[in-house]
Write a structure and sequence with these properties.
Layout: H1 2-11, H2 18-27, E1 30-35, H3 41-51, E2 59-64, H4 67-80, E3 89-93, E4 96-98, E5 105-109, H5 110-119, E6 126-131, H6 139-157, E7 164-169, H7 175-180, E8 185-189, E9 196-199, H8 208-222, E10 230-234, H9 238-251, E11 261-267, H10 273-277, E12 287-293, E13 306-311, E14 314-321, E15 326-333, H11 336-344, E16 352-356, H12 360-365, H13 380-388, H14 405-417, E17 421-424, E18 427-430, H15 432-438, H16 444-452, H17 459-469, H18 482-488, H19 498-511, H20 515-522, H21 526-545, H22 556-567, E19 571-576, E20 579-582, E21 588-591, E22 606-609, E23 612-614, E24 618-620, E25 623-625, H23 629-634, H24 636-642
Parallel strand pairs: 1-7, 1-8, 2-5, 2-6, 3-5, 6-7, 9-16, 10-12, 10-13, 11-12, 13-16, 21-24
Antiparallel strand pairs: 3-4, 14-15, 17-18, 19-20, 19-22, 20-21, 22-25, 23-24
Helix pairs in contact: 3-4, 5-6, 8-9, 13-14, 13-15, 15-16, 16-17, 16-22, 17-19, 17-21
The protein binds cytidine-5'-diphosphate (CDP) and magnesium ion.
Amino acid sequence: MASSMEAQRKSLPIYSARDRLIREIKTNPCCIVVGETGSGKTTQIPQYLHETGLSKKGLIGITQPRRVAAISIATRVAKEQSVSLGAEVGYAVRFEDCTGPSTKIKYQTDGLLLREAIQDPLLSRYLVVILDEAHERTVHTDVLFGVIKGAQKERRERHIKLLRIVIMSATLDTSSYSNYFNNAKVLYIQGRQYHVNVYYTLKPQSDYIHSAITTVLQLHGEEESGENGDILVFLTGQDEIESMLHTLIQCKSLFPSHWKDMMVLPLFSALPSAQQQKVFQKPPPNTRKVILSTNIAETSLTLSGVKYVIDTGMVKGRGYNPLMGLDLLLVQPISKAQARQRLGRAGRESEGYCYRLYTEESFLQLEENTVPEIQRCNLSSVLLQLLAMGIKDILSFEFMDQPPEESLIAALEELVLLKAVNKEEETLELTPLGKRMSSFPLSPSLSSCLLASVDYDCVVELVTLVSLLSVDTVLYTPTDGREKADLARMKFFCPEGDHLMLMKIHKAYQTSNEKKSWCHDNYIHARNMSTVQDIRKQLKEICRQNSLQLTSNNDGERLRKTLLCGFFRNVAEHVRDGKYLTVLSRQEVFIHPSSCLFSVTPPPPFVMYTELVHTTKCYMRMVSVIDPKWLFEIAPNYFHKTMTTNMIQD
Ligand code: CDP
Ligand code: MG
């Protein structure tokens, strides 16, 4: 086993560059490594540095934009090193730390390293920091560019051991990184890439999921049953993946029994790791894998055996409207660079085929590169973290690409409203409350209501509620059993809304004896529910570190008021026929079909929401009924100043 692992490592394209890479990283304070996905950057470079002895002087840290990638790659590397995960090779993601005193190679999310920098801005435990998947330009990676550059400079000035920086990217446009890191050396890894044939649709497709299903079935049906080649489909999220999965499984019976079997596998961030591992395993004989994935398979994870790529041309990304203060998750077109990455997934082992479910003309109209997330997201979390690191002069912080000024101002306003920051003329001062807020791995809104619970004497309940809001969902709704699920969960219905319903579910969960079967019977997501318990534990621990008393009170009105302390800007007023307008920005929003208030008649006149998603319309996803009078109690300055609607006349 060990020797086959060894042989596999040596067969990677990066292996021939091993000595050069070690030499260059040892002699240059900053290097940029560029190489095709699958060449071995993420798994091998940290091991090379470790094997050459660099890790004796400090940790080798590698960031990943996604938690699944961090976990799955650490698992793989621990195996290659023949050590148990959490020993020499470990990982850390939000709410989960799998490292130990002997850890030398640490995979982690970029968000987590940024958090670590709050405690230790010089990152003094690290000898090498590798920012991986830099081309994705997540907001955390972008901020880390500035943080590690600053840490390297400061360590040099203070004669502390040099911080070595490695930036890794799968795309070639490296000039901006090189310029930013003082003309850093760029190292190219020769990859293996076979020719990929590209096909476009002749007409624009109105329903890309439908087209994707048809394409999979055609490919599977047309081909000689003996031929190999897995199919990789790029979709935008869990919902889409699950619904397509369901349809394909139903269609399997269409094929005669002598036909090759189809093994349909989902791949997305929230998937349990045991299920994730299936996509890496060889399928049974005479079986073709059809992998339905989010853009996680674009560059972060390499799947072997893929010969066909079906590209819907869409991705789910963060969006933000600073003028309206609206945070959004939106399904949007990918960039040309992303389309090329997706295509490349088909040509890793032999000639491949890529089916783009859009026209060539649409392809030509795509943006050249993905717009860095920092230019299109809410910056309040990041701003709070930078302030907590002691970086006060935000406007002169050296970003690789400057975020829009209005986003920075909106973020600042949010922090001022949440009383995290004092704005005295030109200087920004973090308040003691703000400092406390920054110690929670939560958005400023969530940590703000958690801290408000101290005044409302319901810390325990808010810890639970915030934990419940920190997982994707605790409701498990199979595509073919929506009605059954709704029926089973009817007993949890709360006329006050989703937040109290979640609390009710949690309480029932806690008192149940057989958690797993209870979850199954009630259509509750067992794994997410157990994650909620882990998060609660951690948040309680942080409360203790902040000397917060774990008070308890489960009065429903009190809980909603406490929640409103962090979300008083997320309030909407019913106008007519289920249509709501946000109270301040007058934006049209609707209650999401998954909310327990969705079909309540008459619709509640005022609601607060903790999440907004934009699909066909703007939907509020976690919704509670509120009394508008609470707003004047909770945020008197804000609502006194800005209210102009008829709200006050009620
Ligand atoms: O980072 P880069 O895309 O250059 O490559 P990598 O992630 O280091 O992957 C190198 C090789 O390791 C690929 O051939 C993967 O198939 C393999 N690998 C694996 O088998 N299992 C994993 N969990 C991760 C990588
Ligand atoms: Mg990689």
